[in-house]
Each structure stands twice: as C-alpha cells, then as structure tokens.
Amino acid sequence: MKLWKKNIWKNTILIVFGIIILLPFFWMFTTSVSDPLKIFSEKLRFFPEEWRWESYREAVSKVPFFLFMWNSFKIAFLVSLGQIITSFFAGYAFARLKFPMRNLIFYIVLGTLMIPGQVTLIPLYSIMAKFNLINTHWSLIIPGLASPFGIFLMRQYFLVFPTELEDAAKIDGCNVPKFLIHVALPSSKSILATLGVLAFIGSWGNFIGPLVFLTDLDKATVPLGLYRFMGSYSTSWPELMAATAISIIPLIVMYIIAQRYIIEAYSFAGVRK
Amino acid sequence: MGKKKWKKSEVMWGYFLIAPAISIIAIFALVPVGYAIYYSFTDYSLFHPPYFIGLENFKELFADEDFWQVVKNTLFYLIGVPVGLFVALFLASLLNDRTLKLAPLYRSIYFVPVILPMISIGAVWIWIFNVKYGLMNHFLGLLGIKPIPWLTSYEWSKIPVIITGIWQGFGGSTIILLAGMQNIPGEVYEAAKLDGAGGMKMFFRITLPLLSQSIVVVTIMSVIASFQIFDLVMVLTGGGPGRSSASIVQFIYEKAFRSFEMGYASAAAALLFVVIFIVSIVQLKISQRITNY
C-alpha cells in the first residue's frame, strides 16, 4: 500500500516530464494537419476541426524532400558501413595483436576525440577543394569512414572477447582473416549494429558539414534542406511542421526498432569515458 | 630495456588492419589540426594562399567587439548545463527504482529528442516560441503572463535556445546518470539502512559521491556541447536580433565561409579548442580527485 502510494507521485512527476517531451511532437503534428489560416487564432486548439493532409503534399512539392532523404540516407548508410568495417578491423588489432607503437597510435586516436569538429572544418574545406570534392556527397562520406569512438568501442569489445574461441580457431588452422570473418564477425553482430546505428544517427543529424560543403539544393541533406525550406518566404507553418515531421520519421522508426542498442551504447559511452 | 620479440605475421596483420581507419583519421583529423593551428597565424582567404602574420589574428580578435559579444553569449548558454544536470539527476533518482514498472518506458520517451537532428527540433520550437500563436505564450497566458517576444527581442533571444537545448538533452544525461546509479551495489544501501539512514541522507551521502564519475562525464559532455552550440542558434534566431544570440561557432562559420577570412576564423577556432581542452582537463582532474579520496 505504501509502495503503491509512493509510486503514484513518482509516476505523476515522470508522466509530466513525458508530456513535456511528447507535447512538441504532438503540437507539430496537429499543426501540420491544420488549415494554414485557422492556426492563427487566439484560442488554443489541440485538435484541428478537420484533418488536412494538403500541407504534406505542398511541402514535398515546394522542395524535393524525398531527394533530401535519399541524399541523407546514402551518406549515412555509407558512413555507418565504413565505420563498422574500419572499427571492426582496427579494434581487433588494437586489442589482440602486438605490434610496435601500438599503444602510442591508439592514444593518438583517442586524443582526436577531443578535437571539436569546428576546428578541422576550415582545413577540411581546403582539402576537399584541392580534391575537387566541394559540393559532392564524398566530402561528407570520406571523412566519416572511420571514427575514434568506433575504434575505442570495438577495442573494448575485443579486450573481453573470450580467448578460448581464438585459440581454438588457431588450432584448427585459422589465420587472422579467417578468424575475423568466421568467428569474430558472427558473434559481434549486435555491437556492430549498435555502432552502425550511432554512426547513422550522427550522420543524419549533421548540419554544419552539409551547410559548408554542399551548395546545390538538390544535393542537400534533410537538415540542410529543412533549413533552406524555412528560409524561403512562402513557407507556411503547417507546411514547415509537415516537412519537419517527414524529416524525423526515418529516425523515429529506427529508434523504435533499435532502441535498446541505442540507449545501451549511449550509457556505455557515458560510463566508460 | 628488454627487447620485445614481435611475431612477424602479427605485426603485419596489425598494421594492415589499422591502416584504413588510421589513414582516414590522419588525413581528415590529425593533418587538419596541424593546418588549423598554422592557419591561425596566417592571413588566409579562399582568394589567396595563407601568408604568415604571427599573432596578428589573435590581437585583432581580442580587440573585436563582435568576438567578445559571441563569447559572452556562449558563456551565457552555459546556464543550461546546471539546470539540465539538475533535471537529469532528479529524474534518474526517480527512475532508479525496481518497483517502478514503467521505468523503461519513461526512459525511452525521454531519450527520443537526443537522436533527432537539431534542425528538426529547432523547427518545432521556433513555432512553439512564436510570439502570437505559439504554445509557450499560450500557456503563459493561462497564468496571466503577457506574451513574451522570445525570438525577436534582445533581452529574451538566448532563453529559447537554452530551453530547447535542455529539452533536447536531459534524456541523454538521465540515462548516463541512471546507468551510474544502477552500478552502485545494493549492499551499500542495505548497510546504510541498517544504520538508520533515511532516503535523503542516503542520496547525499551515498548516491551523489558514488555517482561523481557519471556526473563529471555528463557535465563535460554538456559544457562542451554548450561551447559548440551552433545548429539551434542558426535555426531558432540566426544569432539575432542583432548579435544578441550569436555563438562562437557561428562567428567562426561566418568569418570562414561568409566573409572568407579563413585565417581569422582559424584563430577563433584555435581559441575555442584551447578552452574546450582546458575544460576537459580540469574536469578530468576533478573527477580523479573525487575517485581517489
């Protein structure tokens, strides 16, 4: 009884914060299905009188939103795939193989975690200009193909990876590539998925990179496209909210599917630092 | 010095496997840092190659009123850090309860904004902060408060950025702190209970000290994020009105890619880097001292 009462006030507070998180999304949605003229009323209306999906159609016809999504998807997908591969290899090597300067190189890699992206942005721009990659998606993909955090994560993983498995594989005449592909890869699927999802989210949300590197509107990613859409004078609130809803749907779907991994990885990142 | 014996095949595979990751990081992170430092001592724009001018950029920066304005604004944004930390601590301690059946659901909901693009979040909040028809002023109106010109007045423009930032980030901090709390062995609390310690006392005497590591991590992460604030400012206020909400990173971006003073912008970026570096070192030292006592 006492426990039940205690949990009542706890639940109340926690629900209030839940509402604080969800209300903006709800408000975004109701605005997006409202009549552009009717939202300008002094009375607060949480449900529109009639649902109007027009704004979604208008938003995607004014700017190529599906193209933005494809651009973002392409970049984020290649970045996560690249990070999975490079981190898997490097993490294994740093954890399990002995070679000269191994620790020094690893600490330098870790050190790059401290470098804020804005510091390298200007030199990165000159590098990309030199390679003629400005205004191409490669300028966003190539630098993202490896990540110090991914290497760190995979090294931690391989440090506690059972040695028996590796020894047994070696006795069976397994060499390094065979071991990696046939033994290590199948058993590290879930950590690699986690890493991939994190990389995907990071790449999808990146704003300053596309803002600096991409000039053509049809090359824009979702955040950049949304930003440009906001800046155009003919955008109405329902259209902007519709566009925003479209921009977050892929991530929400991904979150619902991979939520456990995402949260775990996030708390890992926090506890381990 | 003992001679280490390297296995030839291991050495070969080692270098081979780290090569892809290391070359990317070297070319696109390490080399650029070197260049960034070099550029900060040069006069450099897209239209002419960099030439060395010593400390001129830094001298000019310290005399630049606009630079001081964005530094002041960025420091102001730090207000969000303790507020967010407090909210997260409060929520994490509520969620750290095995009898709470819905805890995982709350946790998942709080975390949603953490994964979303800042630009999308900003787009929603710019509408919420709309002076006439926004949700915020509607609610304040219910309390009898007159509409506040959140995004268009010099006095208020930084507040929406802070509020949106806290809303976006507290779920992430909550999860890190909650993970830290769940790492505290239950026996510690059992022992304290036997000694007759109450809930409040246990929180301040056991939870907080044992959680210091996670608190430091959350603080570092939020301070650094706050120093680097850019997306939210760009989308909510564009730095305005005037320069009342412009941030350091926005200053760097505008100098480098709008007026193409890349050397000057690099100098500002180098200062930002030094500050972030010092903050991380100081906070790491604090956390070491805490864990060693």
State the end-to-end CA separation of chain A: 41 Å
- Corresponding CATH architecture of chain A: Orthogonal Bundle
Shape of chain A: globular
Query: How does CATH name the architecture of the largest domain in chain B?
Result: Orthogonal Bundle
Give the strand order, joined by hyphens, for the main sheet of chain B.
1-2
Tally of separate domains of chain B = 2
Which runs of chain A of at least 5 residues are low in confidence (pLDDT < 50)?
Answer: none
Order of helices and strands of chain A: HHHHHHHHHHHHH
Q: How can the largest sheet of chain B be summarized?
A: 2 strands, antiparallel
Using only CA atoms, what is the Rg of chain A?
A: 24 Å
Instruction: Work out the helicity level of chain A.
Output: over 70%
Mean pLDDT of chain B comes to: 89
Name the structural class of chain B. mainly alpha
- How far the N terminus sits from the C terminus of chain B, by CA atoms, comes to 35 Å
Query: Helix/strand/pairing class of chain A, anyone?
Result: mainly alpha
Entry keywords:
heterodimer, A: 273 residues, mainly alpha, MetI-like fold, 74% helix, 0% strand, globular, B: 293 residues, 2 domains, two-stranded antiparallel ribbon, 2 strands, 3% strand
